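Assess this today:

___
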Amino acid sequence: MRLPKKGTPYLYYFVALFLALFWRNIMRHSLYLRLATVLIQADLAREEREWKRQVRKVQYEIPWGNEYLLKDIGLHIDGRTISDLEVPAIKTERQIRHLRRLVRLRIAT
């Protein structure tokens, strides 16, 4: 590039130099393309946040009308846990049985 003529503002010279050096990059990634990609990324992020919100809501939906699903979860129809109604003797018997099974299965090294 030639130096600017005498009396030409240097701003024009720097703009011309900038355009000459970065013209290919400016044309390759135009402002509209950049704006479109930013908007698409924002839209995808919004959709993902919405989807996560829906998944979180479904995670804590308890099927109060279905007695069998509640039993699978470990709840009674009235909302109490199944372990609240267990007799302590039955509970300790089951725990002892599990502990004995663990001791039997322990590998002697």
Notes: DSSP finds four helices and no strands in the chain.
